[in-house]
Structure formats: structure tokens, C-alpha cells
Amino acid sequence: MLVKLLPPSISKYLQMSKPERQYELRLTLWWTPLLYVIVTFLFAAITLYLDVGIGLAQYMPVFFKAEFETTRLLISSLIGGVLTLSAFTLNSLLVVLTTFSGQFSPRLLQNFVKDKQTQHILGVFNGSFVYVLIMFLFISSKPVDYYTAVPFVTVLIAFFAAIVFIYFINHATTWMQVHNITDMMNDVSEGILNGVFSQELEEIRTSQPGDMLEHDYPQSKTVMSPKSGYIQLILFKDLIKEARKDNIIIKMEVRVGSFVLNGNQLFTYWGPGADNVDEAKYVQLIRIGHKETEIQDLKFGLSKLGEIAIKAIGNDDPKTASNTIFQVTDLL
């Protein structure tokens, strides 16, 4: 009931499986900065409590004390500085995304966006701006004679934001180098292979097929796709678990990454319990969406590398093409 009251843009995450939710949240630019902002509120509350609540300045030497007007002037100046750094970071981010889309492949945009370093950098700038803004508002409403924690921590955060800005420029320029892009794509595809297939599927794979209930195959039933889209994810473990309960055999007619039309064959099942099967239960374990994802689709990663190689050939860049082909060879 509560899920229905939430906006569709938020409720959709609650209806996803854990792998889908993790994947989609990593593709957003708001999740990690939101966590930084929440932590910033707690950090700001602690800093204000030290100066306004217990009066930390009265226990500190004169060198570490700052008057109210000095503190307010410092924070008001840093608001503009941190905001300027944030604006330059967003501008650089747009330049990088435009370069990726035009020179390499539009599919690479999501790889840069979901990069942990990119998201943490955006979180640092959002958290820094929120922090200095909170400090400016609260010290104006509850002034005290001297401050210690507020000016010291604010300067420290501004200094850290400046270092992070330099790091972001280095991170963006390094990330745009072709050999780093292709190597990263290789690592992502290997992670899918080792994580999804080796860890999840290999443990339920058997050396012998067992009883396939062939005598019930003539009475097999086929389930059609309820909508058009890409097969994004198949929850194999849950699918097998439910099939064991119902005593049926399931044959998938599609694979992850395939595009199905509304009414196309999705899967076929047969067995002693076929007459009592709730088909909707199984359809929900096969996720169909409007886009391809890398959760279980190895072909999607190979397609990205293929696009880079094709564009490199068109741009008369044989070194990039050969480097990409080597990475594809390694994956295959």
C-alpha cells in the first residue's frame, strides 16, 4: 500500500530484485550525492553542537578562536567558492559525456556515470555546498562571541573540495584514454562472467541432465511474452526453485539480451504438475525492459567494444582498433 503512494520514479526501485536495484542505482547521479548530503546534515549538527552547544571556543587557545563576524565572512565567501567548483565539475562532466558519445559510443555514457569515483566526487561537492550553506544559516540565527569548530572544519572542507576538483580533472582525462576504456570494459564483462555465471549458475549446474520428463513433452505449454522489450534479467535460482515445487521442466525460448515482441514465445514447460502452474509467477521472474543491461548480458559488453573498434577504423585510428580487438579476443 505504501509503495503505491510513492512517486513512480521511486516506487520502481522497491519493485526490483536486488541485482536490478543495485544496477539501476549505480546508473543514477543522485543516489550517492544524496547519501553524502544526509551525512553532511549529521556532520553539520555535530560541528554546531561543539561551538553553540558546549562552547568549545572557551576551552581553546586564542589562536584557534574566530569572532562571529569573521566566521560569517569566511563562510559567506566559501559558499561562492564551493559553488564555483561544483559548476566547473558539472561542466567538465558534460564535456566528458559529449566526447564519449561522439567519439566512442553512446553506450559508454552509463559506464562513466556509474563509475564509483565519479559519483563520490559529485557527492563531495554537493555535500560541501550543503555544509557551508547550513553553517551560514545557523550561525546567523544563533550567534555566539567566538567559534572554533565551525571555521576550522569549514576551511578544511573547502580545502578538501579543491583537492577533489583537481583529482576529478585527472580522473576524467585518464578515463577518456582509449586503453583505459577498453580495459575497463573487459573488467566489467569478466565481472559479469565470474559473478553471475560462475558463482550463481555453476553451483546449480549438474553433470547429468536427470529425468527430463520426456513422456510429458507432447502436452507441453508455451507462455507468451506479455510485452515487447529486451530480456534484461532471468532469476534462474528462483525459476528453478519454483519449477521443483511444481514438478515441471522449463525450457527458455529466449536468452538474456534478446528482444521479444508482445506475443512471442517466452518459455515452454511440461511435467506432472503442468496443469496447476501459475504462469504469471514465472513471468515475473523474467524481467523485460526497454533497454539492454549488463547484469547478465555478456553480449552487451562485447557490442560496446565492437562499436569502439568500428569507429576507430572509420577515424583512421588502427592502434585503437587493434587494442579493442585484443580485448574482445581476451573475453571470447
Topology readout:
Blueprint: H1 2-5, H2 8-14, H3 18-26, H4 31-53, E1 66-67, H5 68-104, H6 109-113, H7 116-141, E2 146-147, H8 149-175, H9 178-201, E3 221-224, E4 229-234, H10 236-246, E5 249-252, E6 259-260, E7 265-270, H11 279-283, E8 286-289, H12 298-314, H13 318-331
Antiparallel strand pairs: 1-2, 3-7, 4-6, 4-8, 5-7
Report on this model:
The chain contains 13 helices and eight strands. By secondary structure, the chain is mainly alpha-helical. It has two domains: 2-176, no CATH class; 209-289, Alpha-Beta Complex (Aldehyde Oxidoreductase, domain 3), CATH 3.90.1170. The chain has a three-stranded antiparallel β-sheet with strand order 3-7-5, covered by helices on one side. A three-stranded antiparallel β-sheet has the order 6-4-8, with no helix packed on it. It has a two-stranded antiparallel ribbon with strand order 1-2. The model has no long low-confidence stretch (mean pLDDT 85).
